[in-house]
Amino acid sequence: LYVATSSDGLTFEEGTFVLEHAGVPNLLLSSSGQLILTYQLFSFEDEVMFDVIVYSTSDDDGKTWTSPQKIIFEDLPESIDSGKVPMDPTLVEIEDGALRLYFTYHTKGAKQAALYSATAVDGDITSPFVVEETPALSVDGMLLDPAVIYFDEKWHHYTWQLESDDNYHSVSDDGISFSLEDDINLPMEFLGQIIVFDDGLRFYGTGKGGVVSAFSSDGYTWEMDDGSRIQGADPGVAELNDGTYIMVYT
After folding, report:
1. CA angle 50–206–219, rounded 5-degree value
2. Dist. CA 188–CA 206, nearest whole Å
3. Chain centre distance of CA 206
4. How far apart, in whole angstroms, are the C-alpha atoms of residue 222 and residue 215?
5. Which tens digit of pLDDT belongs to each residue from 96-106?
6. SS3 49
7. Rounded distance, CA 209 to CA 213, Å?
């Protein structure tokens, strides 16, 4: 993982190294001012920390980070086999200050991995995340790498489709149960993170040229931004309190 910053959300400075053996980063600046990085860790030093969802926090706008700590899950349904674990974290803060984690998970009896969610009601990243019994969304294909945001009185979920130029889009009134909308076709994979930007949304994804982005005023129709943001892939992005932008990417 590398970290980079930008004054306008489009032109990012050259990144600096953060952590090895990690991927699928997601960033959240909480209402308390804590910057939370969630990601998948593949530790070569501690077997317990291999292929698990972890978090690190920063109190200095991403200049330094705490060491990785495992996300604690409660009521996690049985997986299809021992090799299927929660992965691809996306962390959001909901209206009552609670934290909700969306992730990819393949349960016993399911044909494919699906979108699941879990909530820490006290808004503390160190607290257990209680998993919803049923998936937030399942489709005939595999749902990987969720990106979720609340915008215009709805929850929007996006993710890329394997071996396709289309991207999944689904919406929800409660953030717990999602329904599919029309696919979104763009020359980029919705493999990254979405943020509220001015009066619309910007998705930072993966495409030719590395990290690329697109803008939408309604969450349904999208237009690509010119050029690329940085050489890399699968970014997590957040706007800091001073109006600058921070990106963690692979």
Report:
1. 110
2. 6
3. 13
4. 6
5. 899 999 999 99
6. helix
7. 11
